[in-house]
Amino acid sequence: MKAERIFSPQQYRWIQLAINLLFIAVWCFANEGLSFWDDYTYLNFANEINQGTFEVTTNHFTSRLVLIYPTAWFIDLFGINEYSMVIFPLLCGLGLINLFFFLANRVNYWIGLLGGMLILCDYHMINFAIHLFPELPLTLCIFIFLVGYYLVLKNEADYRLTGFITATALLGAFLIKTTVFLLLPLLAYLFITDRINRRNKGFWRIFISLGVFYFLLHGFWYLETKGSFMYRFENIANNHVATVKTFFDKESLLWKRLTYLPLITFTKGGYFIPLLLALPAMIGLKRKDFSLKQADKFWPIASLILMLSYWFFSTNWRYYSPLPLETRHIAFFIPAFIMTAVTFWPQHKWFELLKNKAILIAAVFGFLMIPAYTIYKSGNRGFKAEQSIVQQYLVEDKAAQTVITDGLNSYGYPYFYNFNKVEDKYFWFSEMDFSQIEIGDYVLLNEAYFNEEYNDTANFTAFKNAVSERQWYLDLIEEKGRVRFYRIKKSL
Predict the structure, then answer these.
(1) Where in the sequence is the domain holding 82, given as residue range(s)?
(2) Are residues 208 and 341 in the same domain?
(3) Over the stretch 35-47, which tens digit does the pLDDT of each residue have?
């Protein structure tokens, strides 16, 4: 079934343009600034590149070069602000959308219409477009590989060019985040299946040769600059410490992680809709489908193998520790789920309903409620209010100040000062010795940034009690939404 039965080719191009523009609009209006942990770290490294002080260190974030360097280029061009730092994730999101439309022109127009809309309306895709995280660039790189192999399987692409593009895309993914190794079981399956069926030899020859070359080049670069071929992997292992999010030291929880907990994870955020749409195709797989003689079966099989990898794969080569149950680590599953759905459902009779323009338009507006709600709630974190207060009372005041605040701001405050060296000092109340408190200190309170893993609510109550015991009080200077700014003063 071709979508041109409903829309003309010209209308189809206008729809593609509209989806792209809507994604840009959502990116613009839903932007809620820094989250201050990972995104601040990446931004700081990007700024160091522009300042000429950046170097790859034992911090494994410094090895995510394909995220850091493009960010450095954009902030160098447009300055450091909440929009310039996420231009690269935006472009990757647009790349995803238009890759669906590229496939649509070769396979089925429904792929572009439905795939583009589902990316536009996916909670995770929006969230990763408006924050400086590696997930969207990683997702794009991996999807390029999946699309490339799919077209080779369909005999719709030149195997030589596609071998080069897919191998280079996975190199890019590897230089973004090592969760790309979740692809290894899928790669092994595809290679073995193709060997059994005696197909795609030229593709695999180029892909594997380039893959080995890239890996050796990567290792020898680290050997030359850092003294170890496995430097990056050693850093990952060394930084993998016991936290509430890891499982290698929690035997009592490990069986839950390897059984039902991932199912709960898949019901969260943006996974529920694409996974629900993809499940019938995965459940309906037959034994003969695994030979991949029907190219469209690639997508449900790929989705299934990726999910199994997530269930059992280890994040550390020194000991077994499954991937933490955070949906952001597997964002690259979403396009595979979407492709599984959009290559499956148009074959079914009920799908004829979408040929009715009224039903199709109603469905579109229903899905658009997701980005609309994301825009609506974007101000809940209070970032812009906080930025305004810091700029007015602290940045413009050149005197050295002490600011008692939450963990996020105590870490990421240099952003407000454009990474310039300042005399102001920021302290996280959960890590403070309350004897350090002095009259005249400022208190910056943003409840949206409270971290209950560190008992922030209880610790802030203890902080207020310590202030009261000294016969002092918190004088409210300004309040904007959930953001409050105080100064410690002596009680009359």
Answers:
(1) 3-378
(2) yes
(3) 888 999 999 999 9
Do 291 and 426 belong to one domain?
no
> Where residue 392 falls among pLDDT bands split at 50, 70, 90?
very high
For residues 179 and 315, what is the distance between their CA atoms, to the nearest angstrom? 8
The CA distances from residue 63 to 41, 56, 68, 78, in Å, are: 12, 6, 9, 24
Domain boundary among 378, 403, 436: 378
In this structure, are 416 and 365 located in the same domain? no
Per-residue burial over 69-94, b = 16 or more CB atoms within 10 Å of its CB, e = otherwise: ebbbebbeeeebebebbbbbbbbbbb
Long-range contacts of 359-368 (CB under 8 A, 24+ apart): 360/6, 364/117, 367/117, 367/118, 367/120, 367/121, 368/22, 368/120, 368/121
Distance set, CA 29 to CA 80, 184, 245, 387 (Å)? 18, 38, 32, 17
Same domain for 158 and 226, yes or no, is yes
Same domain, 226 and 107: yes
- Predicted confidence band of residue 130 (pLDDT cuts 50, 70, 90): very high
CA–CA dist 19, 280 (Å, integer): 27
Residues in CB range of 237: below 8 A, 6 or more apart: 316, 317, 318
DSSP 215-239: HHHHHHHHHHHHS-TTHHHHHHHHH
How does residue 244 score in pLDDT terms, banded at 50, 70 and 90? low
Residues in the chain: 492
pLDDT at 469: 92
Final residue belonging to a domain, choices 378, 400, 418: 378
Is residue 246 located within the same domain as residue 287? yes
pLDDT tens digits, 206-221:
999 999 999 999 999 9
Give the number of domains in the chain. Answer: 2
Of 76-90, 230-244, 459-473, which gets the smallest average pLDDT?
A: 230-244
Nearest to 131 by CA among 84, 173, 74, 89: 89
Verify that 336 and 444 share a domain, yes or no.
Answer: no
pLDDT per residue as tens digits for the range 174-198: 999 999 999 999 999 999 999 999 9
The closest alpha carbon to 276, from 303, 309, 306, belongs to 303
Statement: residue 243 has pLDDT above 70: no
Q: What single-letter amino acid sits at 117? A: M
Are 483 and 406 in the same domain? yes
- Three-state helix/strand/coil letters over 312-352: HCECCCCCCCECCCCHHHHCCHHHHHHHHHHCCHHHCHHHH
**Token output for 427:** 């302290």
CB 12 within 8 A of CB 4: yes
Q: Which of 267, 22, 270, 266 is nearest to 124 (CA)?
A: 270
DSSP 341-399: HHTTGGGSGGGGGGGSHHHHHHHHHHHTHHHHHHHHHGGGG-HHHHHHHHIIIIIS--S
